[in-house]
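Researcher: We're teaching a course module on how sequence relates to structure. For the next exercise, students receive a sequence and then see the predicted structure as tokens, so they can try to spot secondary structure elements on their own. Here is the exercise chain.
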Amino acid sequence: MKNLKLFILGFFLIPLFSIAQEGQNLKISVHNFKYLQNQKDFHGGETGIECEMDLHFSEVITDFFKKSFQITWKLIDQNNQVVYNSELNASSNFNKKEYSSPSVPFDEKNPSTMEDKNVALFIAYKDLNLEEGTHQLTLVLSATNKIKNHPDFWKEKIIIEQKTYQKYTINEQEFDLQNFNMNYKADGFAIKEKCLLFSFDLFLKYYRDNLDTKGYKLYWKILNQHQQVIFNSEIASSVHHRYELIHINNIQEKGFDKIKLYLQYQDIKLNTPEEVTFIILAEDDTKNRREILKEKMYLDIPEKYKYEDQEFTIKNLHIFENKKDGVQGINCVFNISFKYNSTLQNLDKGDNYCFYLNLYHSNKEKVSLYKSYKKRQYTSNNFFRVTPSSEKESHEVNIFIPYRIIQLEQGSYPLNYELKVTDENKRIQFPILQTGNFELDQPQKKSALIRIDKLVVEYDKYDAQVLNFGSTKPDLQWHLLVGKDLIYQTKTMKNSFSAFAGSATINYVEGDEINIVVYDIDKTVFNPNDFIESYTIPYTKQKTSFSKKDISHGSIEKLTYSFK
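Model: And here is the predicted structure for the students to work with:
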């Protein structure tokens, strides 16, 4: 028994020892080294030196996740003092590490020699801790990956002509705002309504190499005649417009493209035209701020209206028999237009208005009621969601009510209708939009108990193969629907080609489609819920069993069900 334990321990130690050896003796060398001064960095725009080279690796790293090396670099002066360290001193995140992934052999006779060509390292002059003048320095390269660190694997002497770079603070910077413009009906990113836009050209006296910041954030606010704040971008409704970020690497000598500052009307506490003070503040990386513009102007914003002040115009309403998603019922179609679009304040009531149709028998008894379906796919949309927008002044509304949910027996009926509207959470009831009457020919409603005794899908790999460490069998679940209305769903059968049995009673009228939809229910990023197959059940009043050859399509291998 003791010998058996030693054998098992040795079995686990062998692969671990092999993994530990991979890359332990790896050697990295530099070839075709080039050293260039007065270069412009692509990412940050600063001036500095650039070192280009090819890296040779003396053996192959077989593990894909251990192939990537992080290259770091430093400069050491003649007194052995570090005057630059890429991990500590780089002004740009892009210049802190260079990622190297050797991919091809540099020696055809020896495939265990890998190469990464054109590795480029950048050092900004302004990041060097050097006085003006000529300096002889030593460039030292280090590398690390998931196997091992390779400190100071290469050294090379270089000469740097250092210039004097004055770093100006935000208080020393000169901001010049020109071509100031105001637009009352602008379109803002992630804003549905029209909004107020201030735009201008920004010119800076100092940029790139002469700044102690990577960029500026602009904030803006408005004061009324009593010096009260009536707008503050930092608490704006749209998080996308709480500040404007200016990257220094975008600043050109000729200035900067138009700066755009957006203001939603619902955030401006101003109801009548007034002379106001518009203020813009700039902030650097250390959160220091200064005022760069303070200007009086006359502001006459459009009148604002509350969500519940909305007014609707209904045109061309028609009710007629129709079929949708294989389900029979009636359609109500009409055009709706809103009085208030761009100046509407939603006041946390939701963006949507929900239009719905109530049907009444002649004795005033309701026979169809509004129900808010939360799922996006459905057939019984006896309501319609719509958001007012400044682009579309009119919307075509389509409300469909299946016969199977109308609370009437078979026959012909004179019905009255009410067209109403509310917010999505039904907190506000607007006045009735329109009333009328029509003749309904209601078909006979039926009910059936549908039982699925056996559902088997064909053998296959159902889950994604990327980073999948588990079974490729599906996690089966099936849904029972009338059209697209979900009536019933089973629990999920994990890692199986056979699903749970189940049953449900449905209401329908002759001709409605009754569908079984099969899914592989996965909960990872790589394996979303996967549709497998759908099948429309025939109206067969007996226990029925189908095989794949009978169904003649899809991934269902076997299906046994009863329709009673």
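Model: If you want an answer key for the exercise: Residues 1-23 have pLDDT under 50 and may be disordered. The longest helix spans residues 2-21.
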